[in-house]
Automatic annotation (TrEMBL):
Residues 299-394 form the Mur ligase C-terminal domain. Involved in cell wall formation. Catalyzes the final step in the synthesis of UDP-N-acetylmuramoyl-pentapeptide, the precursor of murein. InterPro entries: Mur-like_cat_sf, Mur_ligase_C, Mur_ligase_C_dom_sf, Mur_ligase_cen, Mur_ligase_N, MurCDEF_CellWall_CoF430Synth, MurE/MurF_N, UDP-N-AcMur_synth. The lineage of its organism: Bacteria, Pseudomonadati, Bacteroidota, Flavobacteriia, Flavobacteriales. This is UDP-N-acetylmuramoyl-tripeptide--D-alanyl-D-alanine ligase.
């Protein structure tokens, strides 16, 4: 079926689904494939469950007019998303970076939605499937779409940019994330900068942190840029007042008190503020948008439990985010401080070195108790407590009484350190 014909069907049935467990009446099911599944085998079930059509790429599963055969389902999904994007009048803001993408995206959406009809990437569905699904969720009345882009190797952001064709872009930072796939820090900078490359090549608009030397140097001669800074008078001034524990910000004559912990979240807020400023959102609404945002999903959450004040930041971790989380925690005022750190994944040959550096940093901060969990951390040369597997940590906590403390919990998603909450 030609793309134009498929798009006509999409306009009649504008809900896309890729999971038969989430089929809604009159959606279009795209039979994607993975390492351990073949969506074609679920096409019949999808239609039985209410899907209007199923898009397949294996002829043997074409049972009736409701099953539409294409050469490649994933490629068709991506092309349909790009076509829909081109038909829409919505402005597209894309963002990527090593740390803080999802929180920044949520803050931007919270600010802009006070004054515009917006849609944004759901959760962290930010890959070659998630980006098309976000674009296909754009409605007729959508004015701004905020599209998060994730990547773990070079050329991925370039590919996603060609699908989304953003009008605006923002890179949160360049950090030590996915070092294995990118081939080191320089590879990370090159890979994430593919968003800049697309925007500059198409003379589009870039928002950026003018206090980030890498970003400033890369955009030095580019005209279509809008920056924020605490010190550089050439750019929009935003001041960090405090972060003990919650980030408080000064913008012009307005003070904003967030529900976010960590100085690193100051920069995430700045991105939302500069975009609000650009899109003529009043400062009152910028304040409303940021102050109403409450972190969730194990991202910089503050939890009070059994006399402990817990910073739960266990959604993800890499050396860069781990370092700033520790530095922020060290600066917080508390009589007792306990740190739980879990292994950082996707570091490749750098894993041993990076885990040792974080272990040394945590040890130098002399917290009351530092506990390291995982194979990599347990292999470090450290005087701190280490547990190779979570079950051993669990046994320790069940038999240990912790005094009322400020607690930081930080680790990669695969470590699932939020389980610690049930043991406190």
């Amino acid at each position: 079926m030609k793309l134009e014909k498929l798009y006509e069907l999409f306009l009649q049935f504008p809900v896309v689904c890729t999971d038969t467990r989430k089929i809604t009446t009159n959606c279009i099911f795209f039979a994607l494939k993975g390492d351990n599944f073949n969506g074609n085998t679920f096409a019949k079930k999808a239609i039985e469950n209410g899907a209007a059509y199923a898009i397949i790429d294996e002829k043997e599963y074409q049972t009736n007019d409701q099953t539409i055969l294409v050469n490649d389902v994933l490629e068709t999904l991506q092309k349909l998303a790009n076509h829909h994007r081109k038909q829409s009048s919505a402005k597209i803001i894309s963002l990527t970076g090593s740390n803080g993408k999802t929180t920044t995206k949520e803050l931007i959406n919270s600010v802009l939605s006070t004054s515009y009809k917006t849609i944004a990437t759901v959760g962290n569905l930010n890959n070659h499937i998630g980006v098309p699904l976000t674009l296909l969720s754009i409605k007729k009345d959508t004015e701004i779409a905020i599209v998060e882009m994730g990547a773990n190797h070079q050329k991925e952001i370039e590919f996603l940019s060609k699908i989304a064709e953003p009008d605006y872009g923002y890179i949160t930072n360049f950090g030590k994330a996915h070092l294995e796939g990118f081939g080191g820090v320089e590879g990370v900078i090159k890979g994430k900068s593919e968003l800049y490359d697309f925007l500059i090549g198409h003379n589009k608009h870039i928002f950026f942190n003018a206090d980030d030397a890498i970003q400033l140097s890369k955009l030095n001669s580019y005209i279509n840029k809008y920056g924020f800074s605490q010190t550089n008078e050439k750019y929009y001034k935003i001041i960090l007042l405090s972060a003990n524990p919650f980030v408080t910000i000064q913008v012009e004559d307005i003070e904003i008190t967030t529900k976010l912990v960590g100085t690193y979240n100051f920069i995430n807020c700045c991105a939302a503020i500069i975009m609000g400023k650009y899109f003529n959102v009043t400062l009152a609404n910028v304040k409303k948008g940021i102050e109403s945002y409450i972190p969730s999903n194990n991202r910089s959450q503050i939890i009070e439990k059994n006399g402990h004040r817990i910073i739960l930041d266990a959604y993800n971790a890499n050396p860069s985010s781990m370092k700033v989380a520790l530095e922020n925690f060290a600066n917080l005022e508390a009589e007792q401080k306990i740190v739980f750190l879990g292994d950082m994944f996707e570091l490749g040959s750098s894993a041993k070195k990076e885990h040792q550096e974080i272990a040394d940093l945590a040890s130098s901060m002399k917290f009351n108790n530092t506990i390291l969990v995982g194979k990599n951390f347990s292999a470090t040369n450290t005087k701190e407590k280490t547990f190779e597997i979570f079950d051993d940590l669990s046994s320790y906590l069940k038999n240990t009484s912790l005094s009322k403390s400020a607690i930081l919990i930080k680790g990669s998603r695969g470590m699932a350190l939020e389980r610690i909450l049930d043991l406190l």
